[in-house]
């Protein structure tokens, strides 16, 4: 049953990701982005990372995509105009894509991963209590640094979006 | 075929490849940002899968930090895009060539 859900949500995520890349209208791309994030959240649920699934829906599908939509509509971005793509760009993107596919194949056929895949430990350690404990003991310093980073980002956004005086 | 770590890593790598292709291929700055988010999500999925199959919590905690940093990055990046739009009236990458030549 879990396998079936995995395949459904994986297909949903990847299909929606293709939608993000290939839709001409940025608003449609943002909508497909929500679908991808929801699919990823469901994959987190199949991995029994419930807290991260909730965070994914709240922060990504909620806040981030709303911010994207707000900016798209504020700037009134039109459909993408047809730019001539240079042949070299095409060659580079196709080669990069092909290299990544080779990476997929080689990683998934790696012996180490095959060895791990057969032994799934029970998820007793994945509770929210353990998550919080780990966050506030082992990862205390990164946690504080993250708070400082958010403060810096906030100040930066305020400075950037202040009206520039033109004289 | 039963689902194991390999399948999750394959999905993660495929998502990363799609996001990478989008970053190279699209011209709209906002859509490039969305593809960047796809790549971040792909790495998050890989981290969660490894964490689950390893039996520890570290991967999940890293994903928590990644999500926080990504949110901060989106806020700053979109502010930069708005500032750029005010100055140049465009978000298309080929028109933003102030540093060319």
TrEMBL record, chain A:
GO CC terms, sorted: plasma membrane
Enzyme Commission identifier(s): 7.1.1.-
Keywords for the protein's UniProt record, in alphabetical order: Cell membrane, Membrane, NAD, Quinone, Transmembrane, Transmembrane helix
Transmembrane segments: 6-22, 29-47, 53-75, 87-107, 141-160
Superkingdom as given in the UniProt entry: Bacteria
Localization: Cell membrane
Pfam families per UniProt: Oxidored_q3 (PF00499)
Chief place where the protein resides: membrane
MF (Gene Ontology): NADH dehydrogenase (ubiquinone) activity; quinone binding
Catalysed transformations (reactions): a quinone + NADH + 5 H(+)(in) = a quinol + NAD(+) + 4 H(+)(out)
Keyword set includes Iron-sulfur: no
UniProt topology in membrane: Multi-pass membrane protein
Family: Belongs to the complex I subunit 6 family.
Function description: NDH-1 shuttles electrons from NADH, via FMN and iron-sulfur (Fe-S) centers, to quinones in the respiratory chain. Couples the redox reaction to proton translocation (for every two electrons transferred, four hydrogen ions are translocated across the cytoplasmic membrane), and thus conserves the redox energy in a proton gradient.
Protein name, per record: NADH-quinone oxidoreductase subunit J
Lineage, highest ranks first: Bacteria, Pseudomonadati, Verrucomicrobiota, Opitutia, Puniceicoccales
UniProtKB/TrEMBL annotation, chain B:
Enzyme class, spelled out: translocase
Pfam families in the record: Oxidored_q2
Annotated membrane topology: Multi-pass membrane protein
InterPro entries given in the database record: NADH_UbQ_OxRdtase_chain4L/K, NUOK/Mnh_C1-like
Protein's cellular compartments: Cell membrane; Membrane
The protein's Enzyme Commission number: 7.1.1.-
Quaternary state and interactors: NDH-1 is composed of 14 different subunits. Subunits NuoA, H, J, K, L, M, N constitute the membrane sector of the complex.
Protein name (Swiss-Prot/TrEMBL): NADH-quinone oxidoreductase subunit K
Organism taxonomic ancestry: Bacteria, Pseudomonadati, Verrucomicrobiota, Opitutia, Puniceicoccales
Gene: nuoK
């Amino acid at each position: 049953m879990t396998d079936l859900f995995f395949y459904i949500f994986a297909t949903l995520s990847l299909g929606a990701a293709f939608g993000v890349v290939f839709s001409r209208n940025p608003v449609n791309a943002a909508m497909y982005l929500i679908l991808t994030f929801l699919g990823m959240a469901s994959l987190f649920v199949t991995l029994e990372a419930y807290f991260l699934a909730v965070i994914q829906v709240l922060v990504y599908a909620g806040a981030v995509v709303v911010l994207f939509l707000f900016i798209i509509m504020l700037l009134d971005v039109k459909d993408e105009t047809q730019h001539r793509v240079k042949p070299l760009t095409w060659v580079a993107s196709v080669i990069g894509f092909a290299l990544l596919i080779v990476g997929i194949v080689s990683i998934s056929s790696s012996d180490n991963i095959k060895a791990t895949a057969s032994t799934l430990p029970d998820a007793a350690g994945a509770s929210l209590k353990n998550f919080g404990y780990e966050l506030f003991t082992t990862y205390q310093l990164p946690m504080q640094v993250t708070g400082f980073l958010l403060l810096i980002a906030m100040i930066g956004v305020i400075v950037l979006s202040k009206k520039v005086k033109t004289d | 075929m039963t689902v194991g770590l390999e399948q999750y890593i394959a999905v993660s790598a495929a998502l990363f490849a799609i996001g990478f292709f989008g970053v190279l291929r699209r011209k709209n700055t906002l859509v490039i940002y969305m593809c960047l988010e796809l790549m971040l999500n792909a790495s998050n999925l890989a981290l969660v899968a490894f964490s689950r199959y390893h039996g520890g919590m570290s991967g999940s905690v890293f994903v928590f930090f990644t999500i926080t940093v990504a949110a901060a990055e989106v806020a700053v990046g979109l502010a930069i895009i708005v500032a750029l739009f005010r100055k140049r009236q465009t978000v298309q990458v080929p028109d933003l060539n102030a540093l060319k030549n």
